[in-house]
Write a structure and sequence with these properties.
Number of helices: 7
Structural class: mainly alpha
Helix content: 55-70%
Distance between the termini: 54 Å
Number of strands: 0
Strand content: under 5%
Length: about 170
């Protein structure tokens, strides 16, 4: 099977699985927040995929297999499994919140959330910058840590009050 057909099949299966994850727990198809999220998420991920395929045609071949089965190291399999489970649980709990009315979420919050999903600047920047990125997750910890990365992380997360420079400067 050629790459375009496999990619289309993967996208359609992903769309159907996401629809089931959203609408089965909701107990209804009359759920505008679910439809909006489904459309925004699907368009966002597919637009990124098309962009990357046009910029680097070999990239989709390396990225077509994703998930725990694509990982070789046990730690990475566990991390990906937990990440997938967490993402699915987040959607299901949000849908159950809608269904059972556990909290009241104003419409503008739902719209803002979908806008953030659509923009996802960190995801797009990372994918655009990495020409060799694959489905596999790598966590370069100590061996590639630089002072500028440490300074950025500390300055953005823990902004010192009243000091002109960060602790690493």
């Amino acid at each position: 099977m050629n790459l375009a057909i496999r990619t289309l099949k993967s996208a359609l299966v992903g769309l159907l699985v996401l629809a089931v994850i959203i609408f089965v727990p909701a107990g209804t198809l009359a759920y505008w927040q679910g439809w909006t999220f489904l459309i925004v998420f699907t368009l966002s991920t597919n637009i990124i995929g098309i962009y990357l395929a046009l910029r680097n045609p070999a990239l989709p071949e390396r990225r077509i297999k994703a998930g725990p089965g694509a990982e070789t190291r046990p730690a990475q399999k566990i991390i990906i499994t937990l990440a997938f489970a967490g993402a699915i649980a987040l959607v299901i709990v949000s849908v159950l919140d809608y269904r059972f009315g556990w909290s009241h979420v104003p419409a503008w919050i739902s719209v803002l959330g979908n806008l953030l999903v659509a923009l996802c600047p960190d995801c797009r920047w990372t994918n655009r910058q990495s020409k060799i990125r694959t489905a596999k997750v790598f966590f370069p910890v100590a061996e590639h840590r630089t002072e500028s990365v440490q300074r950025f992380r500390i300055d953005t997360v823990f902004k010192p009050r009243g000091r002109a420079k960060s602790a690493l400067a």
